[in-house]
Specification:
Largest sheet: 5 strands, mixed, barrel
Number of strands: 6
Strand order of the largest sheet: 1-2-3-5-4
Shape: globular
CATH class: Mainly Beta
CATH architecture: Beta Barrel
CATH superfamily: Nucleic acid-binding proteins
Structural class: alpha+beta
Distance between the termini: 60 Å
Strand content: 35-45%
Number of domains: 1
Order of helices and strands: HHEEEHEEE
Length: about 150
């Protein structure tokens, strides 16, 4: 009986501990699928890191005000399997990012489609995150373009 109770406790604790980990990898936990955004800007910084890559772009709005936006993508392994190379994002290059805004309204987007300077469009989402364009594979699908921010 004690073994069964101990096993039940271990299973319950494991299930509870898994919830934050799942939420962290869930698109819906951080980004709003109802707020598509298109950014056109110059790359200012690139972080080719796990579990997510980040790159930052300076975007100038219609009033001439420039703001820096963070763009979150999948980790380097998934991006490499889609044809990205670390050197594809160079500081000073102009790129187009179609993604979805952070729920908290910050200048952060989930980069679902990135159009590189050479014209290639690549899927940037994390596989299995449940976000737009996630087909459950490493390849992903390229969602439609968002509206300009």
């Amino acid at each position: 009986m004690k073994t069964r109770s101990a096993l039940a406790l271990v299973l319950a604790v494991s299930a509870i501990a898994a919830v934050p980990a799942y939420a962290h990898h869930s698109f819906a936990a951080e980004f709003d699928g109802n707020k598509p955004t298109r950014l056109v800007g110059k790359i200012t910084r690139v972080e080719w890191t796990n579990p997510h890559s980040y790159f930052y772009v300076d975007v100038t709005d219609a009033k001439g005000v420039t703001s820096n936006w963070g763009c979150e993508g999948a980790g380097p392994g998934a991006l490499s399997r889609r044809g990205w190379k670390k050197g594809d994002l160079k500081i000073g290059d102009t790129i187009v990012v179609d993604g979805y805004r952070a729920k908290d309204g910050s200048h952060l987007v989930d980069a679902r489609r990135v159009t590189l300077p050479d014209g290639r469009s690549v899927y940037g989402g994390s596989p299995g995150d449940g976000g737009p364009g996630d087909d459950g594979t490493d390849k992903g699908a390229l969602p439609g373009a968002g509206k300009k921010s």
